[in-house]
Amino acid sequence: MQPARPHSFQQQARNYITAFYQTQRNAFVVIVTLLISFYILTVPDQAADMINAVIDSGVFSQLFQFILLSTFIWSWTVYGSTRMILHISPVGIRLNQEADRLLRWLPKLGGMIPALILAYAFWEPNRWQPYLLVLESGLMLVLFLRVEQRIPVFELPAHWRFSDRYTSFRQDIRELWRHPLGRLVVSGGLLLTAFLIVLFSLPVEWELARRLRPTAIIIFGISMYTFWGSLVVYFNDYRYRPLVLLVFLYMIGISAFNDNTSIRQATDAAVPPIAQRPTVAAHFTQWVVARRQEDGDTIPLVLVAAEGGGIRALNWTAETLIRLDSIIPGFSRHVYALSGVSGGGVGTVFYTAFLRDFAKNERSKRFEQFRKAIRDDYLSAVSATLLFPESVQRLLPVPVSALERAKWLEDSWSGSYYDNLGLKTLDSSLTQLYQTRTGYNYDLPSLLLNGTLAESGQKVITSNLQLDTRYFKNVVSTLDVIQADVPLKTAASLCSRFPVVTNGGLIQKDTLVNNRRQQLYGGHVVDGGYFDNSGVETCIQLLNNLVPFIRRLDTLERVTVVPYILFIQNSNTVGKLPKKRSVLQEVQIPLLAFFNAWDNGSITRDNMFNSFIDRFANPKTNYLTLRLAYNAKYPLGWFMSDSVAHSISRQATDSISLKNKELVRLKRAFTR
Q1: Which pLDDT belongs to residue 658?
Q2: How many Å is the maximal CA-CA distance in the chain?
Q3: Which residues of 88-124 are buried (b: 16+ CB within 10 A; e: fewer)?
Q4: How confident is the model at residue 609 (pLDDT cuts 50, 70, 90)?
Q5: Rounded distance, CA 461 to CA 339, Å?
Q6: What is the pLDDT of residue 143?
Q7: Which of 16, 128, 184, 464 is the most buried (most CB within 10 A)?
Q8: pTM of this prediction?
């Protein structure tokens, strides 16, 4: 008998391509999770800053040890899941020499990839971390080879025995559990899932997620989703039992019943009824009385618009306002209102709480503690909730409010404020912020926090003021819809629920319809940047509301109110043409258009409002923009490394100074 002729190179290549397609058609979920992981850990600016924080902590830091541990678990999950799919009852694999090699090597090579992804994400030639991760990848290959040679449960068979006949769901379960490796992979995956869900369901105040930091949490989440995706694919039979499709349809179906995003309400007996909120007219009258000294007096009135931009905006807004307080005596007392969007809105909430909690002579002593609060890690808790407790909610047919990630973000804000400043101000209600023993506190600026109602596209404002619908047309007032107050931390979250990281917050009320039946109407409040990321439009609406009263004061009482609109901007102001993006343009171009238009919309509005305000003659209104010198390394999420935080603080010190002629002019208005 003549020996078989060796295959030509072309035939071998064709066989490898066919074998790879057949194997990865089954293990596609592992490839998809690895590709998504590569994107999450290497592309966003938030990912780069998370990685830099770990690099800055050093090779021997606890943070980097968590990275090595989580990567080790991820590698084993990829290896075990791939072997479960390919080696135990696979479907549709035609065996040949090339397929045999791939079946033996793909799980091991796949198990090396997680550490290589992290090595790429950590890549800095003069740092040890990426080299250690490459070493970990190589050690994982050695470990996989050794366990296959020495531990029977991992041993590879000399010959594969696959059947192409149909097997029932029960038979597949029996086959998986009888197989020693299948039993080990399933047991390990279930234990890992239970441990992670319990660990990250513990109270935010325990700060377990914050100790691990977001990078390690995301890797643990990827590991869990790799296992469960592989398990579903294992039981999926594209010919007779499309389990992936059935799971997808189930989750769509129950989503109509398990919406757990209803916002918190402040129901404590000490919370004043929302009907007692002052109108803009009544509030402005008392605000002027508190500042007026004599006839002919001139009173500066500052309306601040804080642009959105995650924790970058939070820090720039708070640092800028505190800096203005230090160089312009009396500045905060003449800020009439703060219009905040997204992270800028959260910054205004922290700043207002700080003004309320500490007298003027105490603030400089507590400023470093305040800085720690605004710089804290707010991504870990919300990421952990998104990946673990909320994954349980997605499978439950009923809503569980405690599993909503936005509430965990709110609790992390209030917890950090309490840990650093010793007060639970953010847990109190929005209107309670302005209550004192002697009455209403007119020394604090009012808050107008801007969101967007997803179902209608309308602007949503959460405020301590009753808004006049003649000036705030087509604007939804949160407190008027729900007919209740909200905690201050919830008010902050209602302007900062940007995509994926946080979900929309549900506001609704009973409404009588034509058949006289009550139905719930409302919608989900998402990030205010969807509508206007600058916050300036709300300032102009408020100014229009105030103009008749300002003119009346000038005419009848000889009191001149001089309005200033101060725009605190943190987005990219560079107007040069970018490089083209052609890869996956059908997917990438719409997303780039959405997010970049979001950022550049503020620049356009800034220029337009600046020229428009110049035409305000009575009263003469001044417009001033304070810009953060944009840096692509400044993150947009809820985590900020120490190096970025210090950079923003230095910019606030250097650029928010009396070297700025506009600020010199503003200071003169306060010394008349």
Answers
A1: 87
A2: 117
A3: bbbbebeeeebbeebbeebbbebbbbbbbbbbebbee
A4: low
A5: 9
A6: 97
A7: 464
A8: 0.92
